[in-house]
C-alpha cells in the first residue's frame, strides 16, 4: 500500500481497491488494482511492475466469470487494454470497484453521480452492478416482434380513441358562444344546432368507448403473450446454464425473477405502457389544439413543464436503484420460504421454528426499511407535481380572465381551453406517476436479462459433431480442473474400455465426484480433454451426449407425480410395457404393485411417500429405461440398510450388463465386481488395477480396505451386546449387557 501511495499525484485519492490473487497464467500471486479519481493503477505480481491507465470517457470495466474464476477486463472503444483474473473471494470487492469506476466516468463526463447509501450491497456474482436503465425495456422488443401486426393495430385504435376524446372540449366552444351566452342575453335557442352539437358529443363518447375497449383488450392479450414468451425463454435459458451458475444462486431469488418479475413486466406492458403512450398522444394532440386556439394562452399552459421535468430527472435515479434493491430484498424473503418449506421436517426435528421465524422477520423488516426509504422520496414527488399543475391552472385562469376583459377571446374559448388544460394536466400528472412503475419494470427487466445474458460455462459447439451409436469408450488425457482457486483434478490420464466397470475409490475430497461431473459434462475441464469414442465432449451437443448417460445418485430425486411418470422421466414416450419391464429389472415391480394405485400411485413431494430403498430402485428403473451406453453410479447404496442394499445390488447387476460403468461406492466391498479400481488422492490417480492386485500391492487401496475392515469389525463387536431393560422399584430402569 505504501508503494501505491507513492504513485499518487497531488490531489489524487484512492476510490476503491481490489486484491487479485492470481497472475496472468493462473498461478497464485498477490497483485493489486487501485482506482483513483484520475487513474486505474495495477500491480503485476509476475513482473513486479505497475501499470497506469488514465480514465477517459468510452472506457469500460467488465466483470465476468468462467470455470470457477473471475475476470476483470478494461477496454476502450477500440480494444481491450488489460485483463486480470482472481478467485471468487475477491468478487465483492470487484463489484464495488466496477461500481466506483462507472461513477468516476460519470464525473469525468460531467453527469450527476448517484452516491449509494447502502455500502456492502450483496450483488449476484457475474451480473451487472450498474443501476437499471429505463432503456433496458427496449430490449423487450425481441419478444414483441412476433406480435408487431397486433401492436400496430392497437396503436391505430389508440390514436382513434385519443382523438375521439378531444372532440368533446372542442364542441363546448360553439355550445357556449352560439347557444348558452346568446340565450342568456335574450336570444332564442336553435334546436337544430343544439341537437347537432349534443349528437356530436354523444357520438364522440361512443366512438371513444368502442375504440378504447378494443385497443385495451387487444394490447392486453399481446402483453400477456409477450410476458409468457419472456417467462418461457428465461426458464429455457436457465435450464441450459451450467451447474456452476446454480451454485452461486439462491432458489428463491430465481423463482422470484421468473415469477414476480415477469408478472410485473406484464402489468407494465398491458396497463402502464399503454397509459404512457396514450398520455403522450393526448399531450401532443392537446398541445396542437391549444396552440391553434390561442398561442399565448397555450404558452402559459406549459409553464410547469420545465419544473416537472427537473423533478422527474431528480428522482429517477433514486427510484431505479430503490426498486432494484426492493427486488433483491424481496428475493431474500422468497429465499427464506424456499429454504424453510421444503426443509420443514428438519426445522421441526431440531425445534428451529423460532429461528426460521426470526430469519423471515429480519428479511421482512429489511424489505420494509427499503420500501420506507423509497416511499419517502415518492410521497414528496407526487404532491409536488400536483401542486405545480394547480399553479399552472391558476396562471391560465388569470391570463384568460385578462384576455376576456380586453375582448381578445370569448368565454367559450376560455371554457374549451380550461377543459383541454384539465386533460392536459391530468395526463401530465399521470405521466409523472408512470415514472415509478417504469422504474419498477426496468428493475425487473434488468434482473430477467441478467439471466438471459449469462453464457453457460458448458456451451454447445457452433458446429456440433453427430454423436450416435455410442460404444462407451472413455479417454481422459491431461485433465485438470479447478473449483475457484482450488485445484481438484491434476494431470489425470485414464482410458476406460467399452463395457468395462470401473470403481472410483479414495478419501472424501479426493476428486471422485468431480471426475464424474466432468465425465457427465456438468463442468468443462480447465485443461486437457475427455473423449468418448474418440470424440472430444466439447465438440458434441450437450443434449446429444447426455442421452447416452444413465445416472443413479446417492440421494435419488423424484418429481411430484406418479411412479410411472418418474420411471419414464428420461423417455416420456415410453409405453406402459417398457416401464414395467424397467421396473422388473430394477426389482421394483413387486413393491409398486403393493401400493394403492400401483404404477399410478403418487410419490409425493421429492418422493417422500417412498422409503429410501424404494426411491433408489425407481431411479435405477429410470436409468434402465433409457438404455444408456454409459452408466454413472454415485454412492448408489450408501444410504440404505444391508437387506435393502442386497435388493439394490441385484437391480444394479441387471443395470451394468453391457454398459460402460463408473461407480463410486462408500463400501469398498460393493466394488469387488469392478474390472478395475481407480484409487484417487488429492485429484490424482495413485493406483489402478483389479481388487486382488491392489490388495497384493499393499498400497493406498490396501490401507483403505484395511481401515474399513477394522471399522466394520469394531461395529460388529459393538453390536454383539443386547441392551435389556428390567423393572426396578428403586429406579426407572436397570441396564444389563447380555
TrEMBL record:
Residues 474-707 form the ABC transporter domain. The chain crosses the membrane at residues 151-172, 192-214, 265-291, 297-315, 380-403, 409-426. It comes from the Bacteria. It is found in: Cell membrane. This is ABC transporter ATP-binding protein/permease. It is a multi-pass membrane protein. GO terms for molecular function: ATP binding. Pfam families: ABC_membrane, ABC_tran. Gene3D superfamilies: ABC transporter type 1, transmembrane domain, P-loop containing nucleotide triphosphate hydrolases. The lineage of its organism: Bacteria, Pseudomonadati, Pseudomonadota, Betaproteobacteria, Burkholderiales. It comes from Pelomonas cellulosilytica. Keywords: ATP-binding, Cell membrane, Membrane, Nucleotide-binding, Transmembrane, Transmembrane helix. Residues 152-440 form the ABC transmembrane type-1 domain.
